[in-house]
């Protein structure tokens, strides 16, 4: 085993162990996300083919509500690659949508047209 492989294996093992944590405190929110008790709020903005955020990681507790406010200049659809997968259709203007993920892991929220990953939900 190379000198880099052993520390990498240790880090990976520790990160997998951390996923099974039973901490009572909800995870902290990431930049661009706000947390209010049992909910985390994120605003998604679409102007043409440009989205904000773009690939941001947001920490979320299992069964914690994510409130997505979508501000868009045109109608579209977001895909949430959870189990089961979820779709969020939105119209032009401002709309609000709630998501709850009931399993730990990393869940991507993306647009397929254009193909952009907006969020990576780190559910613990």
Automatic annotation (TrEMBL):
Residues in the signal sequence: 1-20
Question: What residue spans carry the Polar residues bias annotation?
Answer: 27-37
Q: Does the keyword Signal apply?
A: yes
Give the region (Disordered) as residue ranges.
19-39
Q: Which UniProt keywords apply?
A: Signal
Which protein is depicted?
EfeO-type cupredoxin-like domain-containing protein
């Amino acid at each position: 085993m190379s000198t880099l492989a052993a520390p990498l294996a240790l880090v990976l093992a520790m990160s997998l162990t951390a996923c099974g944590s039973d901490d009572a405190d909800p995870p902290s929110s990431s930049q661009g996300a706000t947390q209010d008790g049992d909910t985390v709020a994120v605003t998604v903005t679409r102007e043409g083919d440009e989205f904000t955020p773009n690939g941001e990681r947001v920490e979320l507790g299992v069964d914690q509500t994510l409130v997505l406010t979508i501000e868009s200049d045109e109608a579209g659809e977001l895909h949430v690659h959870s189990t089961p997968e979820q779709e969020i259709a939105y119209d032009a203007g401002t709309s609000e949508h709630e998501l709850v993920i009931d399993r730990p892991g990393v869940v991507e929220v993306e647009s397929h047209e254009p193909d952009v990953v907006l969020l990576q939900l780190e559910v613990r």
